[in-house]
Amino acid sequence: MNTSKKEIILSPEQSGKLADIYTAMVEGYDQVAAEVGLSCEGCPDNCCDSYFLHHTYSEWAYLWQGLRELPEEERKAIIGRAEKYVQESRAQLARQQRPQIKCPLLNEDGLCGLYNHRLLVCRMHGIPATMTRPDGQSMRFPGCFRCQEIISDDKKYPQEQDAPAMDRTPLFREMVALESSLLGDKRHLFPRVKLTIADMIVQGPPAVDTPFCER
Fold it and tell me: Which of 1, 20, 40, 170 is the most exposed place for a label (fewest CB within 10 A)?
């Protein structure tokens, strides 16, 4: 790593907090999915080739925490796939196409090679959800196409908003608090994160300019 850069590393406490948030997300997902009757089994689509962007240093650092726990051969294979993903996605974006490329974390068996360290979007995509923004505006997300089909065919839900939905607000607030804890009182000075998983892998662990007094 460039010596002018200082890596952003989660403390054991912060890493544990993020793991707890992820666990709560999975539990909330499972509850709503069971109520709706949503299952990924036999789905003709694959959300692991969707073009998702991620927005926190906390998740970026957590992803690299998981990568470093892998055997070197597996990690190198993932990095190689990530480099190809970045090249292909940039080419598709240049053609004004939304990339649809298999996630570099998927192994030859089509399974996530970093499942325990998968990110927020990977854990929550699919089910209906709601969120209240800091300005008080309420938002509702209908879920994936399969979920929408199930809800529209189910006579229990005359309207889409009648279907159960997971409230993301409390967990997102915890994520914001964790990000503030990680970045400290200079959070507003950090460049905003807007990266795919492949970008996070290719760019290496999150890092910021090291103060001159620490070089």
Answer: 1
